[in-house]
Amino acid sequence: MSLRDSKGTPESVRALLDGLARLPGIGKRSAERIAFFLIKDEKESALELSQAIADIKHRVVCCDVCNNIADSAPCLICQDTQRDGSVVLVVEQPRDLIHLEATGMYRGVYHVLTGRIDPLAGIEATDLTVDALLERVDNPEKNACGIQVNEVILGLNPNLEGDSTSLYLASQLAARGIKVTRLARGLPSGSQIEYANTQVLADAIAGRQGMD
Q1: Domains of the chain, first to last
Q2: Residue 35 buriedness (CB in 10 A; 0-12 / 13-18 / 19+)
Q3: What is the pLDDT confidence band of residue 198, given thresholds at 50, 70 and 90?
Q4: What predicted TM-score, i.e. pTM, was given to this entire model?
Q5: Strands of the chain, DSSP E
């Protein structure tokens, strides 16, 4: 019997266990350890965590230019006039953007697809922010700081679905006369950007290749 099902477990703790167990990678045992850590932890620390969780639900928004998570729209990257708005690096998820930005090697802007094309999972191009990307290319007013897009770097994860999505985007962008490149294959095939170290990501950005 788990603590969740025990009559000796207070209802407030049961609710916490249920909430923790819904998190990715957190099973029942991990949920129990985290719950009892929070119970024993200083009250102020637990309340700070609670407030941080509440803040992301009330304050975090989606940038209306690049679709990244932000405290305001447009996000700080899209507002930065020191960035090269003519170069757009396309990624699957906000966490990929965060890891690439941490390299300090890239000074363009981004576009977050919020996923990748995966027919087996029922995800088509229309389920992503592909139309928003193409609109940025077609209409400079929709791009960061109103700048014309000249190059799109495809920074999708180097696996079957990522490559298929890259080929689809490359065909759409090439038809518009846009230079299309992709991150260098310093990223091993089948890997995930979020798990690569900053040096590998920096090399991938610097050695980006044209899409044939």
Answers
A1: 3-58 (1.10.8.420), 81-210 (3.40.1360.10)
A2: buried
A3: confident
A4: 0.78
A5: 61-62, 69-70, 84-91, 108-112, 151-154, 179-182, 209-210
